[in-house]
Amino acid sequence: MRRLSFVSGVVAVLATMSAALTGCSTTVHVDPPSPTGAAAEACRRLGVVLPHALDGANRTMFEPASSFVSVWGDGEIMLRCGVPRPAEMAPTAEVSDINGVGWFSDPRRPLLFTAVNRVAYVEVTISKKHVPGEVLVDLADPIKKTIPE
């Protein structure tokens, strides 16, 4: 009887720890793009050099796993490399230059920014918790180093 009580106690402790750990982690779900050729190569290089933290948010896990996606915080900042050209971007659309990277921003989607005029389009979604300018400045060097114009 004593052994059964010990085993039951261990099982209860493990179940509680598992529930606590599960409650602490959030997995973000992101639809990964499917770039090919030079865009895919550039996006893989970008994924390796991206910063561990952006505007105080640390890189985090996401599903499904993809070398073309990076996430910071609980999905507060999401980067997808190798997305299609933004459908809303007209040939004469205004592009903002931030530290040598051209960013397109559709006024109808103010939290979405796309790096353009490069081998691969890089889409960044930034929640209202963060300052877009700071995030885009921090992403400029890695993008310039890995994704040619």
Oligomeric state, counting identical vs distinct chains: single chain
> In terms of structural class, how would the helical and strand content be classed?
alpha+beta
Stretches where pLDDT is under 50 for at least 5 consecutive residues are 1-24
Tell me the number of structural domains: 1
* Mean model confidence by pLDDT: 86
Strand residues, percent = 15-25%
Give me the Rg, rounded: 20 Å
Structural write-up:
The structure is a single chain. This protein has 149 residues and is of the alpha+beta class. It has one domain (27-146). The chain is 34% helix and 25% strand. The protein has 3 helices and 10 strands; from the N terminus they run αβαβββββββββα. The chain has helices spanning 2-24, 37-49, 132-146, and strands at residues 28-29, 53-54, 57-58, 62-63, 69-72, 77-83, 96-98, 101-104, 112-116, 121-126. The strands form 3 sheets. The chain has a 6-stranded antiparallel β-sheet. A hairpin with a 2-residue loop joins β2 (53-54) and β3 (57-58). α2 packs across α3. The longest helix has 23 residues, at 2-24. The termini are far apart. Residues 1-22 form the signal peptide.
Notable characteristics:
149 residues, alpha+beta, six-stranded antiparallel β-sheet, two-stranded parallel ribbon, 3 helices, 10 strands, 25% strand, globular, DUF3515 family protein, signal, DUF3515
